[in-house]
Amino acid sequence: MTDVAVRHAGIVAKPELHEAGLLLVQLGEWLAARGVTPHYSDAAAKLAASPVPGPVHTADDLPHHIDLLVVLGGDGTLLGAAGRLARAGRSVPVLAVNFGSLGFLTEVTLPELYDALALAVEGGGAEEARLMLSAVIVRTDGREEPYLALNDVVITKGPLSRMIDLAVSVDEHFVARFKADGLILATPTGSTAYNLSAGGPIVHPAVDAVVLTPIAPHTLTNRPIVLPASITADITSSHDGEPDAHDGEIFVTFDGQTGVAMEGGDHLRVTRAPHVLRLLKPAGRSYFSVLRQKLRWAER
What's the whole-model pTM score? Predict the structure, then answer.
């Protein structure tokens, strides 16, 4: 048994990922043989083909017991795991293994799994710190509802509502009123998600910035803008001076995982989160190769 830097590794899996049942057990046995205690989320343990060789925790409790996290699934699974780590105040490396259809963030393939994991448990391997966003909805009665996002914070209209009117300020300086179907605040990680579909730019993950992108704006001069990640963005809804005109018609979603309604007089405040996602990268694969492979970027 060799000395390792990691002593406790967490394992989470995409819901209903039954094809990973055998791998979940084998992965835990591989870790245990190298002196690493495998810890499972309860959902992952239920998917396993046989009893797992390590303790089982709720998804929210798991981050408190580990110093490495292995994610089996797609980008949605990773987004959920990133949020739980950040809410727990835990900054541990994450090895994301692709079982999804696109897997832009979950880059590690199954053939690469054990080589990448061997590096990870020894404290090696390339790592990227991915910016996250902290969002707070401030209600009219003063209540504050906090949320976290790795990809984006998206403000959209309801299914039957008209175009919404959003007033945006940055660091207490008025920016503009956006009459649009919605607005996206995206991190560099999220720049290749909804932001890209809405016409926003691709931002390299090493760039310390956020992107403000209107969705189908009424005025074509309302173009996306790249802002420093250090800013505080405040967003309120208004309609010809009537703060309650959009009651029940505006929704805010965080990484597409959680959504809440904004009522008249509420406002949304977005800043950089105090936590980053420490994403482990496969050896020899650049960000640009991922763009070309996953998005067919710059291909004819």
Answer: 0.90
Q: What is the number of structural domains in the chain? A: 2
Query: Pick the catalytic residue: 42, 75, 115, 255?
Result: 75
| 136 and 268 housed in the same domain | yes
SS (H, E, C) 159-227: CCCCCEEEEEEECCEEEEEEEECEEEEECCHHHHCHHHHCCCCCCCCCCCEEEEEEECCCCCCCCCEEE
**In this predicted model, what pLDDT tens digit does every residue of 214-239 receive, in sequence order?**
999 988 888 999 999 999 999 998 75
43 and 98 share a domain? yes
Sign of CA dihedral 201, 203, 207, 213: positive
User: Are both 112 and 157 inside the same structural domain?
Assistant: no
For 182, the domain range is 132-274
Element (H, E) at 10: strand 8-13
Q: Do 142 and 182 have their domain in common?
A: yes
Whether 3 sits among the annotated catalytic residues: the reply is: no
**Residues 68, 72, 75, 76, Cα dihedral to 10°:** -100
Note whether 252 and 151 are same-domain residues.
yes
